[in-house]
Each structure stands twice: as C-alpha cells, then as structure tokens.
Amino acid sequence: MSNQHNPSKSLTIIESGFDKTTIKLLHLSRFCFSAYAEGKNPDCEKIVSFCKREFGSPFSIEIAIALVEVLNSMRLSRKSTFHFNSSACKKCRNRISECERLLFQTVYSMKHKQGSKAYVTALILCEGNDISPLIKAVDKLNKCLLKVERIANI
Residue 136 to residues 33, 35, 54: CA-CA distances in angstroms? Predict the structure, then answer.
C-alpha cells in the first residue's frame, strides 16, 4: 500500500460516479489503507465506530468485517503496490486513485447487477490473478449493505 500524493493524475470522487454508500466505503477503506501502509493493522474500534455513524448500529460490525475481508482478499491477489489517496491530505481526499477506482468500481458494479463489468474490473485490479475470493467478499459486503438499505427504506 502506498499513499499516492499525486492528485493531478486522478479523478475527483464526484467524477467517479459512485453512489453515497460506495463513497462512504471508500473513506472508511482509506483509514485501513493508511494503517496497512504503516505496517499496522487497522483499529477495529475506529472502523466499527465509523460504520455505526455512517450505516447505523444494527449492521455496523457486519459491514466493517465484510469491508476488511474485501480489502484483505484484494491485497492477497495483487502483486504490485496498491496506491491510494489519503483522507488526511486536503489536496488528495476528494480525489480517487486508479487502484481505488478499480476496487470500488468492482463493488459498485456488483451492487448494481453489472456482473461482467465487475469481473473485468476485478481482473484488472487483481492483475489477472484469481478474483474469486474478492468477488465472494464483495458479494458478502453488498448483502450487508442491502440489509441497511432495506431498513432505511421502511
């Protein structure tokens, strides 16, 4: 994992076309990316706290675990460095790196029943390596998010 610090070569988050839920996941994942880049494990309490605030209490732990599983499956399938933009940097936080875009395009595409696009994007992200663990983890995450959306629409 590597903090990109080159905002001019990336899209803005708005230009990505992602929905609010996907953008929340992006911000949460950046906390994890920063920890990984420093050789640490993400602080579970902070992840769950973020999820409670952003997604509501009933499913916050489930979403946190599912997102970490997505990140870990992606990390294990890639050989090269994953570049991300830091939430702490004012110039970078509103932009999305190419690696982040590929990861969250996979999540977004699966959520919106665009399986072919999700699989191709995952293959690019995983550099042609096995994508099945990532796809399985993304599917689990999206099922958790669907529960939250059902409750919000009641």
Answer: 20, 24, 23
Q: Tell me the pLDDT tens digit for each residue of 96-112.
A: 999 999 999 999 999 99
Question: Token pair 């929905």 is at which residue?
Answer: 19
In angstroms, rounded to a whole number, what is the distance separating the alpha carbons of residues 101 and 15? 11
Residues of the chain below pLDDT 70: 1-9, 152-154
pTM of the model: 0.88
Helix (H, G, I), strand (E, B) or coil at 76: helix
Bridge partners (DSSP) of residue 96 are 11
Three-state secondary structure call for residue 112 = coil
CA atoms within 13 A on the CB side of 134: 27
